[in-house]
């Protein structure tokens, strides 16, 4: 995976399959690994999604770091390896790592494939960009034209408004909504 901007928050999502009789052991382990994470630079927090089905005890653990490099330091650490070795106390299965998730526009500006090696669909990117541009391109030039008479200045002013709106607001929102769909 290629990362071009290491200053964006990232997460790793891990699924633990916990044996029913070992839920208390898992809870203690979770508290311990979270305390270990807190010793690492850039650790933001952990969220745990508890299982909905009592017959399938799949806990989803979400570990958040302030940037990719800090996450990688945790992922490569001996402390993490020691905590993972303790997973056999509550699970017969090795934890499943769902994905790294880069927040914001990293999906657009960074790698064209996700951590599973799936390529981003160019057609889907085109469709998402058209969706994002539709309203600004329709409305902004008309609004600008009500203040300016010269077509070149209307175009340049409209672009000066549309591009930052797209980059700062619309595309991050669309990536958040459709990010998984892109692959």
UniProtKB/TrEMBL annotation:
The keyword Membrane applies. The chain crosses the membrane at residues 126-148, 154-175. The keyword Iron does not apply. Coiled coil: none annotated. Keywords: Membrane, Transmembrane, Transmembrane helix. InterPro entries: ABM_predict, Dimeric_a/b-barrel. This is Antibiotic biosynthesis monooxygenase.
